[in-house]
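Bug #77: duplicate submission created two jobs. Keeping one. Sequence:
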Amino acid sequence: MANNTVGSYNNAKYKSVYAYISFFIWPFFSLIYALGNIKSNFTKNIVWFFCAFFGYTFIISNPEMDANRYQEKLILLYGLRDVPFYDLLIEPYHNKGIYSGTDIYSHLITLIISRFTNDFRILFAIVGFIYGYFFSRNIFYIFDFIRNHKLQLLAVSSLLLLAFILPFWNINGYRFYTAAHVFLFGILRIVVEKRYRYIWLCLIVPLIHFSFLFPVAVLLFYLIFRNRFSSLCSCFACFLVFTELDPKTINERAELAPVFMQNKVMGYTRGEYVKFAQSIYTGMNWYVLGHVYALNFCIYLRRFVFILKKEKIFK
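Kept job's structure:
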């Protein structure tokens, strides 16, 4: 028995060392190897490191990408590195009115990196490193939980949905996806483990992306009403109604939003931007559009199954 235990330990240690060494030689192979040993402790770290590698090798394929703006801002701030750090830190928010910045995380991390380099690869490697930590921890937290509770169908569908809705390859828009994973990281520990000290992590997520003021409101709603199923379903139905609002209607009432958000609200709901967003799907192949419909179908199907099986799932 002792020999078997020692043998298993040595084998696990060998696989771990092999995975880490192979990452520095061939990162993609290391990722595949780690996923082939998905129950091993090193797997989540390889996924984490691969996200950083992906950020480092990320290519700006066209000037319209968000990443191009981040690169231009890094170069600009690098040229201003003789200006006091605090002055540049508050500049996007001080006396700007409706044009105030809404997110602090992106500006802060770009400003810090600009003190040392204007290399875009370093910036996105750090962005990927931070994003990858929360991405990998969330993926394997859910995997371990549902595997231990023998919810195999739920396990597979949850992992696929999480991987494709909040994927690491969408690092171009890293603010939203980082915010989503940080928020999920806190939510899982609050809901599953009742570790309410993680609420602070959820509360600061709007500093990463301002739109998470709404999920924070939903979280507070949940903490007040708990698992009152009818209340939660009503909340879900209410938000479905909001997704169907006419952007023009929102644009005309942008002044109802807080001052620092008004410019963002008007920008994302103006006619030109709406047409641009709609044009993204124009002329795309059927399977590109099909995956969007399939994803939405899976999400709503899971909601329907949850309603039918809620007693079993709650237990």
